[in-house]
Amino acid sequence: MDTKRTTFNNRLLPYLLLAPQLIITLVFFIWPAAQAFKSSVEREDPFGFSTVFVGLDHYRRLLTDPNYLDALWRTGIFAVAVTVLSMGLGLAFAAAVDRVTRSSRIYTTFLVWPYAVAPVIAGVLWWFLFNSSTGILPFYLSKFGIRWDHDLNGTHAMILIIIAAAWKQISYNFLFFLAGLQSVPHALMEAAAIDGSGPVKRFFTIALPLLSPTTFFLFIINVNYAMFDTFPIIDATTTGGPAQSTTTLVYKVYQDGFVGLNLGSSSAQSVLLMLIVMVLTFVQFRYVERRVQY
Fold first, then answer.
1. Cβ partners under 8 Å of residue 208, min gap 6
2. At what angle do helices 263-286 and 31-40 cross, to 10 degrees?
3. What sign does the CA torsion over 137, 139, 143, 144 have?
4. Is 175 exposed, middle or buried (0-12, 13-18, 19+ CB in 10 A)?
5. How far apart are CA 59 and CA 36, in angstroms?
């Protein structure tokens, strides 16, 4: 079989085609990362008039700071909870819509709408729903003997931001899971049905294994979302409180850098956060991807 190959005589053309992406990566990732690392090894006054090189002093202090270690542990719990909840509900909704032959587009439209809501609006929406004075959810929870108050109870505050962050991400996961389910060959499902397999067994033995590439992709996206993109939700609902019970790593970077004006420590935290995400991504591609069936 003959294959046709296209050759470009101009050696400069490939570099010109790559130039826009390289420039964007340099300006918006490599340069800020280099500046963050430079600031992390310096001690600078809040007004930027004097700078002193301190080496790895900021990193040593962070790794022995109980508040930072608590924020690290809290971020892990938050990321796992948001990822599991948003992906689980997204998959459940996608499976339900995939079984609907009529009005599936209407259900899809309704389920996609939350993704168009800004993160701050999502946080404020759930803050009103869980408001201990005027919210409707605490009213119904009180009938079961649960006195909800996320302004004083750290566990309640963590539950609030987990629900708000997961709700915002469900639509994204739903779209990809629905596309993956619709791409499953109908011949396989019909053959399993003829063999006597029920809907649940067909889903777990045929559809779910074929969704492993989609699940792996969404797993990485959701972890990164929980680590970085949930800052507006936390800031709009709990502002890291009460008593820093909802202060994640990304929100602590903001608190120490922009509020506390401790620029060196904040830069070191941002570098450590970037390294943590890079290590997690490497582990996911190195070990988790082995279970993916392409």
1. none
2. 130
3. positive
4. middle
5. 13
**3-class SS at 118?**
coil
What are the structure tokens assigned to 215, written together? 């699940």
Residues near 184 by beta carbon (within 8 Å), at least 6 away in sequence: 206, 207, 210, 211
| Count of CB atoms situated within 10 Å of the CB of 205 | 12
Residue type at position 76: G
So what's the pLDDT on residue 99? 81
Mean pLDDT by 10 residues, the chain (294 residues): 66 87 91 90 78 88 92 94 96 88 76 87 94 90 90 94 95 92 85 82 87 91 92 93 92 90 89 90 79 66
Architecture of domain 58-293: Orthogonal Bundle (1.10)
Q: Which residue from 124, 133, 137 is spatially nearest to 237, judged by alpha carbons?
A: 124
Tell the residue number behind the tokens 């996206």, with chain if given: 221
What single-letter amino acid sits at 291?
R
Q: Give the SS3 label for residue 52.
A: strand
Rounded distance, CA 219 to CA 291, Å? 13
- List all residues 6 or more positions away from 228 whose beta carbon is below 8 Å from its beta carbon: 250, 277
- In the chain, where are the structural domains located? 58-293
Cα separation of 229 and 14, whole Å?
Answer: 34
- DSSP assignment letter at 69: H
